[in-house]
């Protein structure tokens, strides 16, 4: 019985133990790449957004309409960057407590976020970023996010 419990505990513990958490330098570099995207968003600079991303990637958002219908929208980075100029006011997105994981030249970041327009709360959700490092430079391949107006961290 003791062996069975030990084996069960190892099966449960192994996946978490096998996850590689980013070292400080990788964490900083990955978050710097995301900050570059957010700076491009805030300044409505399409070139800054595309410079922080891989052109093969996508930006995908999910939300629920007032009627309860699930919506998924997505685009390539060039289209996403082009739409940013149409956002009214000054958009600012802030990640809250990002969790960074790195394995070699790939990384993922899972983090709640808060989005404001002209300093006023707009919405919140969770961001999931996939990043790839090439020639020592981290860029965002994909971002997927949820979007809601309730259950949000403080803006």
From TrEMBL:
Residues 1-18 form the signal peptide. InterPro entries: FrzH/put_lumazine-bd, NTF2-like_dom_sf. The keyword rRNA processing does not apply. This is Polyisoprenoid-binding protein YceI. Keywords: Signal. It comes from the Bacteria.
